[in-house]
Amino acid sequence: MYASACCPGLAWLIIPHDVGLTEGSFIYNSWRIFLLICSVPSFMVAVLLFFLPESPKFLLSRGDHDLALEIFRNIYHSNTGKPRETYPVKQLLIDGKEQEKKEIGAEVMVVTGKLRDTFNDIMDNSKQIFIPPILRFTIISITINLTFHIGYYGLMMWFPELFNRFNKYSTVHPGKAASVCEVTNFVVNMGGQADSLDCSDKIESSVFLESLITVAAAIPSNIIAVLGMDRLGRKFFLVFSTFTSGLCAVGMYFVYNSTHNLVVSAVFSGVISCGNAALDCLITEIFPTNLRATGIAISMVAARLGGIIGNVVIAQLLDLYCPAPTFIVAALLIG
């Protein structure tokens, strides 16, 4: 979440300035530099992941207690500074079923090879999450992630564009109140009347500041979620978040200036980010350990699909029929 707040701040520092490289028809301007800088952390994470050990709980569920014990020793050494050999636990006990599973897995590894065994394991896990009793949790997880992220990404991705449209409207009509739909119609009509060759890539600095405030509003709500998650429960935060963010989505239809738009956007960002944290915890806990990675992966696919649908649908409906996006998002979140 702190990284998300850094993103609009970094954009504010880079994009409005005339920096870059121009060589004939080749233009490498400020927004491209911004994207290049934003790509660096991904490569850093990819490298650091190679040094991250596997979860001991997962290894135990696979029957590999020797490697799990070695990881526990490394954790003990890192936390206490004492030698690994002084770790008080000398052996991890597993039940008969897990031991049998490990022995069978070893035999299959010899016969079929590591790659084929891994593929069979993936297919087996995928089948298990789509059969009872796990099927119920899978359907719930997919449904919640899909609908939640349609609203989450559908509006969050378009808040900067709304800020930019309010800025354009206030430039032409200073001090005049207007709803989101009136501002949208003005910008769409202005774009249709403008010369197609007269294209400006300039974005006012206030747009980045408003985006920064909107994203930063999620920081205190996430802190509250972290402190109260175990006390009040995951479901409480998820229900509170979806209901409140749904009301904020409806409220977007009734704002009449950029300040109101900023306040509603910030509240929406705060409460829905809190719900996103609760949803991640809830999804992680409903799947058993041996199926957790596969279950979360399926859930994340649904979440990304919801983000794509929300982004595309909101973009189209906002210009075609402005009231629809806010009420669709509200219905999906509250429902």
UniProtKB/TrEMBL annotation:
Keywords: Membrane, Transmembrane, Transmembrane helix, Transport
SUPFAM superfamilies, per the entry: MFS general substrate transporter
Major location category of this protein: membrane
Membrane-related topology note: Multi-pass membrane protein
Sequence ranges assigned to domain Major facilitator superfamily (MFS) profile in this UniProt record: 1-335
PROSITE patterns: MFS (PS50850), SUGAR_TRANSPORT_1 (PS00216)
Subcellular location: Membrane
Assigned GO CC terms: membrane
Record family assignment: Belongs to the major facilitator superfamily.
Name of the protein this chain belongs to: Major facilitator superfamily (MFS) profile domain-containing protein
Organism the protein comes from: Timema tahoe
